From TrEMBL, chain A:
It is found in: Cytoplasm; Preautophagosomal structure membrane. This is Autophagy protein 5. It is a peripheral membrane protein. Residues 11-104 form the Autophagy protein ATG5 UblA domain. GO terms for molecular function: Atg8-family ligase activity.
Automatic annotation (TrEMBL), chain B:
Tethering factor involved in autophagy. Involved in autophagosome maturation by promoting the autophagosome fusion with lysosomes: acts by associating with both the ATG5-ATG12 conjugate and phosphatidylinositol-3-phosphate (PtdIns(3)P) present at the surface of autophagosomes. Also involved in selective autophagy against bacterial pathogens, by being required for phagophore/preautophagosomal structure biogenesis and maturation. One of its GO terms (molecular function) is lipid binding. This is Tectonin beta-propeller repeat-containing protein 1. Pfam families: Hyd_WA, Pex24p. Residues 384-441, 972-1032, 1366-1404 are annotated as: Disordered. Belongs to the TECPR1 family. Interacts with ATG5; the interaction is direct. Interacts with WIPI2. Interacts with the ATG5-ATG12 conjugate, the interaction is however mutually exclusive with ATG16, since it does not interact with ATG12-ATG5-ATG16 complex. Residues 384-408 have a biased composition (Basic and acidic residues).
Amino acid sequence: MTDDKDVLRDVWFGRIPTCFTLYQDEITEREAEPYYLLLPRVSYLTLVTDKVKKHFEKVMRQEDISEIWFEYEGTPLKWHYPIGLLFDLLASSSALPWNITVHFKSFPEKDLLHCPSKDVIEAHFMSCVKEADALKHKSQVINEMQKKDHKQLWMGLQNDRFDQFWAINRKLMEYPAEENGFRYIPFRIYQTTTERPFIRQLFRPVATDDQLHTLGDLLKEVCPSAVAPEDGEKKNQVRIHGIEPVLETPLQWLREHLSHPDNFLHIRIIPQPAD
Amino acid sequence: MPSSELWAVDLFGRVFTLSTAGQQWELCRDAQLEFKRVSAAAPCCWGIACDNQVYVRVGASDVPIRCREEAYENQRWNPMGGFCEALLPSDRWPWSDVSGLQHRPLDGVALPSPHWEWESDWYVDENFGGEPTEKGGWTYAIDFPHTYTRDKKWNSCVRRRRWTRYRRYKSRDTWAKIPSEDDPQQLPDPFSDLSVGGWEITDEPVGRLSVWAVSLQGKVWYREDVSHSNPEGSSWSLVDTPGEAVQISCGPHDLLWVSLWEGQALVREGINRNNPKGVGVVWAITKDRKVWFRRGVNSHNPCGTSWIEMVGEMMMVNVGLNDQVWGIGWTDRALYFRHGVTQSELSGKTWKAIVAGRECDGSRAGSLSSLLSAGCFFGDEVRGGGESRVPSDSEAERPGPDPERDVEVAGPASTPAELPWTNIDLKEPKKGPRHAAADFPEGTNLSSLALLPLGLEEPDSADCHALWAWVSGGGCAVEAHTTLKWFTAHSGLRASMQMLSLPITPAQTAAWRKQIFQQLTERTQRELENFRHYEQAVEQSVWVKTGALQWWCDWKPHKWVDVRVALEQFTGHDGVRDSILFIYYMIHEEKKYIHVFLNEVTALVPVLNEAKHSFAVYTPERTRQRWPVRLAAATEQDMSDWLALLNLCCCESRRVHGRPSPQAIWSVTCKGDIFVSEPSPDLEAPERWLPCDQMFWRQMGGHLRVVEANSRGVVWGIGYDHTAWVYTGGYGGGCFQGLASSTSNIYTQSDVKCVYIYENQRWNPVTGYTSRGLPTDRYMWSDATGLQECTKASTKPPSLQWAWVSDWFVDFSVPGGTDQEGWQYASDFPALYHGHKTMKDFVRRRRWTRKCKLVTSGPWLEVAPIALGDVSIIPETPGAHGSGPGIALWAVSDKGDVLCRLGVCELNPAGSSWLHVGTDQPFASVSIGGCYQVWAVARDGSAFYRGSVSPSKPAETETGVRGAHSGVRLGREREPVVPPGGHTQLPAGHQLGTRVQQRAPRVRGAPGPGLGHRQQSPGEPQPEPGNCVSPHGCAAPGAQGAGLGLWHRGGLGSPVRPGQCHQGPQELIPGDGRQAQRGAGPPQWALEGGRCPAGDPQSRLLLRPLPLTWSRTGAWSLPGALPLGKRAHEGPLSPGHPQTASALPPKEKWLWGSGWLCLDLISSQSKIRKRGFLSKVKEGVGRLEISAGEGRLLPRVGRALLGWSEDGGAARGCEKLSKCRVRVTVVGPQPALPLMGLGAGGSFYIGSCRRGWGGWRPAERGLEASARSRALGRHPPGSPTPSGQLLSCFFFFKSEKGPIWCSLKLASHSRTRCPGVIGAHVPSPLILRWIELTASFPGVPVRRARLCTVLWCSVCRPEADSKEVSLGSPPEGHWREPVASAFASSPGGGTGRRESGGSAQAKQVKGRVGGALLSVYTRGCQVSPSGHHRFFCGSALSSCCDSLVSPCPLSRATVSPPCGAPTADLLSLTEPSRFLGCFIQ
């Protein structure tokens, strides 16, 4: 019997093979070779693309270099979404590797946040963790942690150290024994079909009758359109970390095992590919 | 947590029980009985019914209550008619009891009450002191009463024999009426109150209960002789009281309080021995319903000091186990549980209502009539004061300085009740369930409830919840930290869902989880498989954790020094994580460091002593040096963090995670720590040849004394308090939290053990015995040896984990007996102590005991309710995967009953119930081997074998036939093992040991780190009492590390290296001692040998690890730890006999392996005889287990060898040798196959093997043809007779495709036989000393893989290429090489042959081996591109080659890589750095 740590491990070590190509309009001194990289699903684009940046900067003229940004098939990629989420949202049906275009010019101000340094990512990451803990434990756990614990969380993510990260993160996953789960489940539901970036609501893991809520319960409540009617054809895929958990999966378990490092359960609902 | 039950009576007189694990009251359905009150103890419940009779209800248990009746038939010799019943007038009765004083004809022995039934008819006990007697069971003496002997002598004038008959208590799980006395002046009036207690009075036999009752006239009665074996007791006896009692309460110890009609409380003093016992707890209810807690109650002052008022108004209170308190609320008649009662806070925190539903809630037929009948005697109580037990009319007259009315007593508690008691307010809002809130509004506290109208017989809420009249928690074990499910209402469905089946949590079996896991795997496959060559976005960087610890300095001065430590984790190029632990220290102002690679760490062992939170880090090197790295942290938390982190790193670098596999090897240390080692998953991986000191041992949470595992992942353990535990499938626990622990299947576990100290006194002519000794005397308060001062105050629990749970009390159960005050007398220290004073006694001592308790957590669940002394699981159940019969599991309860667990399977390792297997006497140990062979040793030392056990009839309970139950059984079902060697009698005093298996630390799976008695911590030399640690073994300052000298052979089949470490000294290469030592096996053994007594080379201890399998179950293990230079005594000792430790002979060692048994018995004494010890062999893969005699008897007692083959053919051997090295091998499956043994000096023994017993017959020195032909089974007649001594023999049996072949090696000749080359005759240059056989079994394809790996093959040139090779001194020879074909034909089956394709062609071995490389352990053969064979040697080629006698250049080559050997053309080393293999071209 495999233990659930295997799940955590698999989630953490998910990788997306990616091919970075420079945008064709960028002016280069010599031809830019594509750059191939395995991106960690749970990390952030700007956190792990130092190599990409260096690679392309070498062929660029110094004066043309400004802030780097990425785009996939015309969509600018939000660096503050986890990479796996971006992939699942935009490219999950396309062939691997994932082709990302690298831009140095014409930063899409209205689509993307600036990311001048890694401190910005860290701040974003930590605020996500804190927000999640506010939902889970009224921020009690995160507030009791010391600064070095916060740092260890961040360093764990940054350096892709599973043990380092989880040594701290498990404290965020605990809940009092007398309760069946967290206060609220921190989740975000992303839909490509709507304008709204994502859905976020208060949702308890345990129903009033002490039954554990399942993923299906959540979707019915929050995003009924995502759930196929009883007899209807399945129109949407519900994806977390690139997989489709069955709707009967208890939400609390999902929360504990399939959360991103930012402690949110990122659920994507994408239209069923018509094949 | 085992479930136990809370008993309660509702207002209608119905008795309900509520399990601690359950959520629903269950009605005790019985014959329309209505009860007034009940008083429960763990095994039974007493009650007073509405017919004023006393009833007892003994819970149904798997263990029957049996009682043996005895009668003696006495006869006197008469010159006329020989022995006859005509006795002299002064003689005893012809039929009498043992003393002869009482006439006891067989038909005059009656059943004591209708609740008993005879189990069998009378039969003669032919067993005398554990040994069979002459026919008829007579024992003889000169006269009555005298010493009886088995043998009839010339002066034997009288004889007697014992008739026995068993009766069985049949009224179980039903209310059995206690017969009222016939005597009219007895029991003139009915009882009104009853209390059961006293089960913890230390000097009483097990199961003894004190039952006290109060009659309506206010007299107090005591029920005599209530015990486990006599649940009814014998009679009521009146106990005087100064006043008229109205209520009585008896604690588990000697505390007894009575409340009188006048309102005073009485305390009874001097119950039994006036032992200082623990502190008791007294709760009381006064007339005004107030609850009081008595402070300062202890055994010295049973009255306590003062009363403390508690919050709440109660009708009654009851104190149960662990001082937990239950009460019935005054107003609502609801049951309350005092929440938060702990050792430190005996008064608890709040009252919590128990709202568990009742199964009959729907059909409550409460009628006024039944209510009245329930209260017929206590109508006023029910109406007015509830159980205040004071009739309302007497209240006014009550003087009332002592307000107590209802007194409940319990004990013990470890802390004196001198705590600052404060009244605890009950303001906490009830966390009651919703529906309970209907009649118990939220936020109401009990005191406000008191404002409600009282005393209503029918409260209006009667429909909503039960009205209770009485509660008894005496049988309800609630630990302070247990979470109960009583306080919330649940539907029945929910309750049933809560009953989780053992190792599997719902989350793990759910389909969704499987699917997620599968999808994740697929995702990884999809997204990563083709892109692995891509660069990683995040380079694996080094991660460092630093901290400050203390380190036990490696050199003088040994002391703790402050160090900085840093753990660096990094990822290697191959993606494997590794870590290094750096320890920086300052020496002479200079900064230095040592470091440990975590992938080399073999064990991380927490060392908890009083002073430090420390742990030891073992590596193979450190183990050899006996000097682990010891680190100490400032706090426990700190230590756990480091331990967990290091453990995680170790596991990661070893790629071990998750729960242990079924093949894992389990062990426990002498400290009770549990370790698991995982065999390498790769069958052919070189790691499989790990010696034990290189195995990685990973700790599991929990605390056990015994662990037993089988090959299917069923693991059981027994704690020091005899509690049985079953493994739940989790991992971690204990100090391993977080990532190192599984999220589920971890439960709280506790264990209790005793600490002993001795009070010593010397006689003084003036003052008598005083605690003033001579200056040379030992400490007046000391440990058992007298060397260490141990006062009551200074003696601490063994480690910080342990906490005292009792006070010191005198131990009366000391071997040798004590007097009334517990003293033992002797002429001087140290001498033999005896229990009565004589003229010559000048000193005396007594033993004080104190219990301590450890609470930890681990993947273990208790298997209630029976405490076990021993447990044994069948090693492997072939063909029973998934379905089929369960896994056979046998156990011996601590009372000596033999039990068989039913329903054990992989999915439910705990099994369902115990099946009691009838025995004639208490047993000590049981062992089940392959093919359902069950052996057991009785407490008196006789060994029993149980026939006809089969999967379908797990315990073969014969029923119905009376004769089968009685004496016949001795002869048939359970044959006492006749002593070996054809003797039918044994010299008196030869007792078989008390265990079937002598595993030192009770390692069943395999030895653990710090094997056996080895102390884990350096500088901690104190052996633990009862722990079979040799008192001398502590001399070694360094801890002896993990499993010295044990060799681990991987998971499934593993190779055997016979003979490898059995070279006699004369066979070692002269002049090259070092090498010889290396060659002779693991270095430790050689070292061990180096310490043998001079002048007795044969007494070198030759230990030989030789399992066929490493079965998780049995594998083999080393019973005796091997403290260097102190081999000894630990082996045969069973824990709990520290007294006999020093009496043990120092020179036995034995091992057992599966497939064969090896015993090396070396004694410097010339008289060694064998006596039965048991062993078992399970189809070549099981295990052997051996039991040895009781310690002090051992010097004269040798052993017999027993074993049996797969089909049940059992055999046994014995040998009379002065210097005995015995090795016996048992081979299945053909019953015709012989056993062979080799005596010292080469004498050869053959045991015939048939179903049942075989006997050893000595073969002549130099095997005769006939003997050999028998040995070989099918040896063709007329073949040449080899001359010389038979020195080694190998049998290999046919696998499905492979050939049968066997090799018999003689001193100067060797026969090799295989089907193709019958009669091939190859002279052998070897001089080998051991016979051994390995076996595989036809038609068992599973075994084939094992066969291959097991083969120890002789490599020789094929005959086609046979050229004589000159060898020098040893005879020349070639060896037939059947191995290649054997290997080739055994399919790759799991052996992971590197070039399995090639091996099929390997019909010939080319090349020569320089005449020297004659034996190789192969673990696979390989065909090189050139078509040549390679033979890969076993672990250390050095060993392998050293085992050759010849001046073999190869042996040099192997130990001095890279091969600069002269035979470089013949030999090269594939892996020179590891000596792992060589091949021959």
